[in-house]
Amino acid sequence: MKIIVPIKRVIDYAIKIRVDASKGPLGVELKNTKMSINPFCEIAVEEAIQLKEAAAKAKKGDAEVVAVSIGPKQCSETIRTALAMGADRGVHIETKPDVRGDYIDLQPFGIARLLKGIVDREGDVDLVLMGKQSIDSDCGQTGPFLAGLLDSPQATFAASVEREDDGSFVVERETDAGTETIKLKPSGSPAIITCDLRLNTPRYPTMPNIMKAKKKPCETISLEDMVTELGLDLDDVLVPKNEVIEVYEPPPRKEGETVESIDDLLGKLKEKGLLS
């Protein structure tokens, strides 16, 4: 079984985002800002490793987990995090810095086309496990786009994933009305599953595994070479399908008022027209 896990380098979820209007549509300060693996991608890596461990325990053959990242040179650090967690090897599609620094605004459709190239390149891929969305753009579109390009069965917002003996995947997925369970049957193309928050709790890499990760293979391919290999034009990947007009901070909330009693509170609400 071969599992591909796309991962994204984003601003760390615990960092307060600083808006910088001088940067134009991107609008956020990246210099000296801590970056880390996208939390939903981290959950996908953990699930892939658990599926690998379950296959080994049940003696159902070897499994391989391949972490894939698209972005600047620093994405190699993100891949090393996945390797330290237990992924077997990495593939890095490296993008060159643009005028705004190390960040190129690749959008979901362009990313999906590159990931399709990786799947075709690897061959015999059984599953693509990925986060349901990234915490910077919140698009949640890459998984469905990739499923469409590959003509693959897909399940989004997975809360539970199990592999059956026939190679199918049973997925419990979250919906607005609760959960539903669906089965992705083998179809000649890999199943696409996007992971939700409650799927698992990612492990912390141990120091021995961090050291071992430095020796695990990580292939680097330039974006230009990958695009050429796919027979595409660079603009097919880089030109955005939608445009961000402006990024700005929400207006500060007005300070609250302290009241001495319920009657004072009701009086204030009536005064402001919030209570009739």
Automatic annotation (TrEMBL):
Enumerate the spans annotated as Electron transfer flavoprotein alpha/beta-subunit N-terminal domain: 25-230
A cellular component annotation (GO) from this entry: mitochondrial matrix
Q: What are the protein's GO molecular function terms?
A: electron transfer activity
Q: What is its main location?
A: mitochondrion
Q: Pfam family example for this protein?
A: ETF
The UniProt function text for this chain reads: The electron transfer flavoprotein serves as a specific electron acceptor for several dehydrogenases, including five acyl-CoA dehydrogenases, glutaryl-CoA and sarcosine dehydrogenase. It transfers the electrons to the main mitochondrial respiratory chain via ETF-ubiquinone oxidoreductase (ETF dehydrogenase).
Protein name as it appears in the record: Electron transfer flavoprotein subunit beta
Keywords assigned by UniProt, alphabetized: Electron transport, Mitochondrion, Transport
User: InterPro entries, from UniProt?
Assistant: ETF_a/b_N (IPR014730), ETF_b (IPR012255), ETF_beta_N (IPR033948), Rossmann-like_a/b/a_fold (IPR014729)
The cellular location(s) given in this protein's UniProt record come to:
Mitochondrion matrix
Q: Subunit info?
A: Heterodimer of an alpha and a beta subunit.
**What family is reported?**
Belongs to the ETF beta-subunit/FixA family.
Q: Which Gene3D superfamilies match?
A: HUPs
Q: Which GO terms describe its biological process?
A: amino acid catabolic process; fatty acid beta-oxidation using acyl-CoA dehydrogenase
Q: Which domain of life is it from?
A: Eukaryota
Q: Which residues cross the membrane?
A: none
